[in-house]
Amino acid sequence: MSASTTTNCISSGSPAILLDIDLSNQFNGPFIGFVLSTILLGGVIVQAWLYIFHNKDPWGLRALVAVLVLLDITTTILNTFVIHLTMVKHFGNVFESSSPKTIRYQLIGSAISVTIIFIVQVFFASRVYILKRVPSWISGFIMFCAVGAFVFGLFVVIDDIKDPSIATLQRTKTQVEFGICHSLAALCDIVVTAALLWSFEISKTGFKETDTLLQNLLQYTLTRGVLATIVQLCLVIVYFTNLNSQNWAAVQYCESKVSVITMVAMLNSRATIYERGTAVMSVNSGFIDISNMQNVISSPQNNGQFNNHDLEEGYSLESAKHQAEHTDLQSKGIVIFQEKVTISQNR
């Protein structure tokens, strides 16, 4: 509606009638993504709240979780700015979604999301390396995928910063970078999940308590890997099937939150996992690792109590199976990274 038409309507006392403009092609993706990501932010906050009051981790791990949560909240704030600009401040302006200012907000959010995913993937890659149940080259391959996804993700952001427009996302160069970024991220999550599943599976001892804990770890790891991989693959599919729209934003707004929620949820699940173990009475733990260990032995000398032996940087949670005459037995078990576990017999 022109300015003169609006002026005439006001002067004549008749109400101004806005045209019915369909903006779904421009705003469907960002709007749906904003709604879903805001809901997921609630999940991030809940998991962070539980972590604050239930963790006994080293300060380094606590700081890592805090940084991830704060970065993820920042992405939601930036997404809110985008929605406010396009749907409130410049309501009805079909060109606002492709304005340099709006795109820059989206780019900053994308850069933060890529960084969050990179940090989470490096964290899980380090767990695979510490477990030492798979060849070291697999850990190296995981790091290669994580770094590659991070670098190509930044390439996409840099290209758009140089030329902040929707057309930039439709260029062949940007499409290739985008595809490589999220394909490598998906591959990284798949390999991490497979490596962790294999590590937990081959670490089973035949002891009911230990194997039960490992089975629970298998379930949590598989769930996390499936969710993270599905998000990355969906983002690639939606992007390449809807190049002329921003429908991909519906998935892109949520990817960092899925990574943060699944990571912190796994950290929070440790207490629940150990409460299910029949040999565990109380647990103050950091991240879970598997390593070679000695059995905890119940003997007349210790009046039926368990002894736990320090291993490298952590303490061991061990399953009791035999009596004092088997004190030389060696087996596999669960190591709690940089934390102490209190256990007693519950037979």
TrEMBL record:
**InterPro entries (UniProt xref):** DUF6534
Cite the entry's keywords alphabetically. Answer: Membrane, Transmembrane, Transmembrane helix
Q: Which residues cross the membrane?
A: 31-52, 64-85, 105-125, 137-158, 178-200, 221-240
Write down the Pfam families for this protein, in alphabetical order: DUF6534
Q: Which residues form the DUF6534 domain?
A: 185-271
Q: Where is the signal peptide?
A: none
Superkingdom of the source? Eukaryota
Name of the protein in its database record: DUF6534 domain-containing protein
Please tell me the species this chain comes from. Moniliophthora roreri (Frosty pod rot fungus)
